[in-house]
Design goal:
- It is a single chain.
- The protein starts with a helix and ends with a helix.
- Helix 1 runs antiparallel to helix 2 (about 30-50) and helix 2 (about 30-50) runs antiparallel to helix 6.
- It is an all-alpha fold.
- The model has no long low-confidence stretch (mean pLDDT about 75).
- The protein is elongated.
- It contains seven helices and no strands.
- It has helices spanning about 5-25, 30-50, 50-60, 70-75, 80-115, 115-160, 165-185.
- The longest helix has about 45 residues, at about 115-160.
Amino acid sequence: MDLKLGGIFVAAGYISRLAALYLLIWAPKTAVYLGSFFGLAGYAMIFLTDDKVPFIVAYVMIQASDISAALQIFIKDFYDDVGVMGHMLRRQYSVKSFGLVCFWLIGGFLYNDSVTSVALFGAVILILQITVLSIYFSLSIRLKAVKRNEAVKRNEASRENNMNSKEKKCLNDINTKEKSVLADNMKN
């Protein structure tokens, strides 16, 4: 392959990555899933064909599956403290870098066997990525609900702390009446 043509395809791969990052700004979860599925389809294309054109197209598709920027967006959901979040982002980057080294080492050994072995390995990694992302997204929905409930409780506690004694007595009377009505309804 001509070096200029190779450079064009590498640039197309990075354009694919940039498109995924741009989508990440507006719809992070959608961008991660689409990128992961495009990457999985790219590895499947390499695995199923020996032709150079699908290989190049697959390379461009695989570049959309880079989710390291997404991880930095999603980690903000879990940490309110900026110091802790900064520490966790540094840890995430270190683990990601170590994972990339392992991925390239294993890929290099597999490449000696065949390109399809590398494609199968990449597909397995992306299937794991999609599985872990699905678990994460389901947990983040639960986390948001818990944070919302905690905020409601803090607001109620703050409101009760700001009441004067007359307002507190009225609120206690209402709660007492509600409890007695509930008890009467349960007896019937």
